[in-house]
User: What shape does this take?
Amino acid sequence: MKKLWNWHSLSLLLTLFLAAAAGTVSGAETQGSDHSESLHEFFDRVASERRSLSPQAMSAVMLGSEREAEFLGRLDMPSVEGTRAELSMAQRHRQELSGFNRDGISPQDQLSYDILAWQLDQQITGAEFLWHDFPVNQLMAIHNLLPGFMTGQHPLRNDTDVDFYLQRLAQFPAAFGGTIEVVAHRAELGLLPPRFAIEKTIRDSRAFIDGPAAANPLVIEMLARADRSDVLSQARRDGLEAELTEAVERHVVPAYQQLVDYLETLLPRAESNDGVWRLPQGDAFYRWVLRDHTTTDLGPAEIHRLGLREVERIAAEMDEILCGEGYCEGGVGERMAALNAEPRFLFEDSAAGRAAILEAYRDIVAEIGQGLEGWFHDGPAYELEVQRVPVYREATSFGAYYMRGLPDGSRPGVFFANLRAVEEHPRFGHRTLAYHEAIPGHHLQISRMQVMEDVPDFRRSVRLHAHAEGWALYAERLAWEMGFHEDPFDNLGRLQAELFRAVRLVVDTGMHFKRWSREQGIDYMRTVTGMPLSDVEAEIERYLVIPGQACSFKVGMMRMQAMRARAEEALGERFDIRDFHRLILDSGAMPLELLDRVVDDWIVTKT
Assistant: This one.
């Protein structure tokens, strides 16, 4: 769902403005303008101007239109100038938004106004931290995101799409060169990523170009797609392997080698694996990024205390279940680690075992998809597939993630499971992970969001992590309320997942605010949760390169639970859980402080 190299661009361009702009016209017009521009025309223009900075985003929007050829052969080009232009655009858009008379528009348009204003204000107040992100990191950067974009999102409908694919491969050196430019600029300012992030990017970049070009994923994956789709002319298919291999040899391999060579010169300067407190203005940056991700004013100290309280509460619930099943000795994390090693909870460590894991997830999703009645008015808006994370991305990818489909149903949503280690997928954790990523979590949430009518495009975005991830974690517990965790071990898996999110509050603030080391974070998470070491290390290193984001899950969940409790108390027998869920999902993404207002207004209309 996030596909650019500058983290501000990443979340804002490819998620905030990826879908087609809404066509509704509002009656409000700019004040003092030489021309009449309605509020929704302004929203459309903002979306268009933002997308114009990203050919990859534009190609997704223009696919199938007469203008698609303008963008399908182009890649995004990171640059220092481009990053500054993004900020300048936000400042201009905010000034233009202020020119509208907010009091003279409908409540729905007022909400759209406030959501956009919040996002622009947040971006603008972070101007002093414009370079504090890490465009090169082990998790989501050009070396692993761009191949994923090429093999998963570049269209393949005819011979011409192959031409565009080859044009994009030819631009790899320029795109990688732009990445080096923005990293070097940060390095000059003393803003270096953690050492492990550079080391693992070097390792993974080398691995990607190791071996013959004909075996590179950019060749193999496109050949497989061509065979599955059978849309190419026979002549083009016959020569495709040679064309792709030559392009990888000429353009892709040198681009990756260029990045490796640069990072090797940077590595001696990257002496720390600590949190962002080590950066210039690091403490202030962390406070800003916490607000960006949680969309609240909760500070790091308060979030840390909240995490500790939740860890204690959830661990007590788990202890009660564990003792009830005969596991009473040792800490909760220790006992969960022992459960995780029991053969009865593990799939076979083989290709067949991994296929069985995916099939188990499919069965769980299908089951709950038939059980939404009484809890939701509407189900997902399009189909879902369960797939394995590509092998070349497994080592440093998320344990699981969701990629949204297209509203017209031409591309399904995909729940990706990382099968690098079967012990990361114990049977008792399957249900909760599926409920989070698929139904009633991200797939239900995002597919419904994408078919919202009469709202501007940013209302359909997953950019606001506290809303998106808060819902998915809320959905994990909701599935338990719906009766889908009857087995006590499945319920343990649910609680372990919630404990994991509470631990995130502790370790994220611990490393970035309390100045814990990477190793302290790993030790705490592993001790408390009992998660496999490989999973824990990947998580801790994720938090170190994306500070604050991990706090959005639990904060978002708890705020949504509080909203629901408030509505239940105020409405009593008039409370309908289906109406509440429709309100949360079909109002679109927004900061939690605005969602609070939406829920309170809804309560008033119901009383």
Remarks:
- The radius of gyration is 24 Å.
- The first strand starts at residue 384 and ends at 388.
- The CA atoms of residues 306 and 505 lie 8 Å apart.
- The longest helix spans residues 234-266.
